[in-house]
Amino acid sequence: MSHRISCYTLFDVTHTGVLNRSRPNEDDVEGWIQKRNTQCNFDTLLQVISLRSQPDLIKIPVKLEMNEELFSKFGFLYEHTKDKPLYYWKFEFEVHHSSVFENGIIPLGSLYRDCEGVPMILSKTHVEMLPAFLDVSDELKNIYFEVI
Q: Fewest CB within 10 angstroms: 22, 142, 147, 148, which?
């Protein structure tokens, strides 16, 4: 039996398919760098998840506008102003045994521990005060997971 897990993050993890590290012969080098960096962030999260499991049926990340209810699930030090929209990214994956992420305290505790401090690349779309690493603390939580 498979278990579906949703990942929510403030980091831009847009799946762009740009995998090549050498710069292309394009006029829009800055656009290519942005696409490469967001792909790197997505790849990094998949690698962290893959430390304990083999994710299947991955739904690629989608960029969504933040609402008040969801904003409260991230760190309480982030500021939200009504005049400037905030965005988050969500993707889903399946694992055969979600128990691989258990730590004896919470169902996804080991997954959170694996994420803590992992370096990420900031992009133009990031939230103010966002650190350049994954943080699961109450103050600066920038990633969380839900079993659905």
A: 22
